[in-house]
């Protein structure tokens, strides 16, 4: 696979870089902002949302069988916790996507600036193939597509094998799209970005899936643990910071990989431009007899 060695190298550099105090702060800032916003929203909507969801689960022909099936299976108290469980299952993807979008839009540029200030990349020219407006539109559109996919696949997240497969794929795909665009927005031209994304499509997808697998650990715990439901405020608070650290790590990983790939591509183009094909000129010396 093209670039696999650089994938491993940039992974190690990102792992070390994530422990830097500046990176920890960059993970803490979006975590605090998103936590406060979602905390207020959940606090304001918890009771009416549970009432509406309970009515829907009880009266809807599509979902009423769930409670009946749980009661039949011996879970007599299912009616008491099925609505909160559904609410948590619905809110997890929304919180995760909003955090990733916030980090991609507000934190990735700071991470890219940190990487490009290193001596190896200080001479890298900024060609600005993407602006703030373009990044916002791309981020929102990607998040919308991911949210649609989440809502379409959410019913089968309850199946034990799929809860460990679908979240990594979805978060990985979204991470790859957002990180790749925002990392290259400042330094690469549109043509360079398209060329790099085409050349390194599979390594970038692999990086996204690995990041998604790391980010799916809190999701798996939330979706399968009764303790997560009982301690939802505390568990969600801790898990959200885990998400934030993982997304900052992913941003560092993509930054090291793509900035290095961009620099190498420009160097190859420069070497090609400076290489003048050697021409052999046969000179016939005059015969002076």
Provide an overview of this structure.
With 289 residues, the protein is mainly α. The chain is built from twelve helices and no strands. Residues 278-285 have low confidence and may be disordered.
Characterize this entry briefly:
The protein is mainly alpha-helical.
**Strand proportion:** under 5%
Order of helices and strands: HHHHHHHHHHHH
Overall pLDDT: 80
Determine the number of helices (DSSP H or I, runs of at least 4 residues): 12
Strand element count: 0
Assembly classification: single chain
| Low-confidence region ranges | 278-285
Helix % is over 70%
- The gyration radius over C-alpha positions equals 25 Å
Cα end-to-end separation: 65 Å
User: Which shape, going by the Cα principal axes?
Assistant: elongated
Which structural class best describes the helix and strand composition? mainly alpha
For the biggest sheet, the summary is: none
List keywords for this structure.
289 residues, mainly alpha, 12 helices, 79% helix, elongated
Summarize the topology.
Blueprint: H1 4-18, H2 21-59, H3 64-72, H4 78-106, H5 108-116, H6 132-153, H7 160-163, H8 166-184, H9 190-199, H10 201-224, H11 226-230, H12 232-274
Helix pairs in contact: 1-12, 2-3, 2-4, 2-12, 4-6, 4-8, 4-12, 5-12, 6-8, 8-10, 8-12, 10-12
